């Protein structure tokens, strides 16, 4: 009998219907999921494709670039994560999957991520460089231990220190190494230990989970270790446990007991070494005594020591040779000096400036005499010329004319040279060689009338 095909759905129709159910179910629109990442693929477009699994099941997942850019870590294979997103159906494969909106490391993984962040921060600041590591003293006299005094670890450390190096003084500072008060307790006791001026400080605790050891991964605790002025050894947990303080301490030990061993020498080794050095010193001393005795025997058998006059004679001849050599040398040097002196005296006599000085003095004296004679002659000529000029001046002087009986007349302080310039009644003044006369004009006669 033929089947009614209208009852049957296509694969696409069924897939769409199931997808519709997924998208309309409010419980699938905000799903919180935890599991392990697998098949992680970072696409070049920024999307991340992966699967999330547990011991029984697996689900495909995708995180689009917009949400992936908000992550503060890189998803990798095997990470345990906490996810939030919505469930949908991929129609082409008919496979349901989760669109992840949020992702974070789950539990312990988150702690490891925080540890790596703190480590990277210290690395950027340069705190992990070996140049900051302080050397441990070879023979410490005082060691301070920062740990819990009730723990088995501190008892093992004290026993180890007493056994290996009983000379050292040990001071214990009871410290909370786990729990809410542990961070401040460790930091405070590190400061107290630094103030003790001990030779070495040991920071230690026994093994545990990463949560138990987390105090030693705190950034503030690591900075307190880095800022210690006293050399510090860290021994936290077991050999596989590496905490943040191990990176900044001066020496990292795998366990608390190993920290105690590395902080002090082994007295048995020291005694063994001292025994070896003692034997070496004895052998060296005996060898030097034997060599010295042999040298003394050789010298005592030396023929010159058996006849000391040989030593005296040889040295006397040596002294005589040296004296002769010195005398010859001094005589030759003295002769050379005299030759040089005679040479310098001859050169000085040849270049003696005395004759030139005498010559120039004679020329200066002769020139000075000529100059004096010329000056006297010139002065005499000047005097005679001056006297002649004076006689000429006196011959034309008005005073001399007045002395010969002449006079001159003035009117209004002006010399009268022409009668025409005067009028009857003018008062005139006539000057003689001695004295003046004032007169009043009563008559004016011109030349034409004379």
TrEMBL record:
Compartments (UniProt record): Cytoplasm
Keyword field = Cytoplasm, Exonuclease, Hydrolase, Nuclease
The superkingdom of the source organism is: Bacteria
For molecular function, the Gene Ontology terms on record are: exodeoxyribonuclease VII activity; nucleic acid binding
Residues of the Exonuclease VII large subunit C-terminal domain: 128-439
Signal peptide positions are none
Instruction: Give a yes or no for keyword Membrane in this entry.
Output: no
This enzyme's EC code(s): 3.1.11.6
Q: Which residue range or ranges hold the OB-fold nucleic acid binding domain?
A: 9-104
Catalysis performed (reactions): Exonucleolytic cleavage in either 5'- to 3'- or 3'- to 5'-direction to yield nucleoside 5'-phosphates
Q: What is its main location?
A: cytoplasm
Offer one example of a GO biological process linked to this entry.
DNA catabolic process
GO CC, sorted alphabetically, is: cytoplasm; exodeoxyribonuclease VII complex
Q: Which HAMAP family match?
A: Exonuc_7_L (MF_00378)
What role does it play? Bidirectionally degrades single-stranded DNA into large acid-insoluble oligonucleotides, which are then degraded further into small acid-soluble oligonucleotides.
Q: How does it assemble?
A: Heterooligomer composed of large and small subunits.
Record's protein name: Exodeoxyribonuclease 7 large subunit
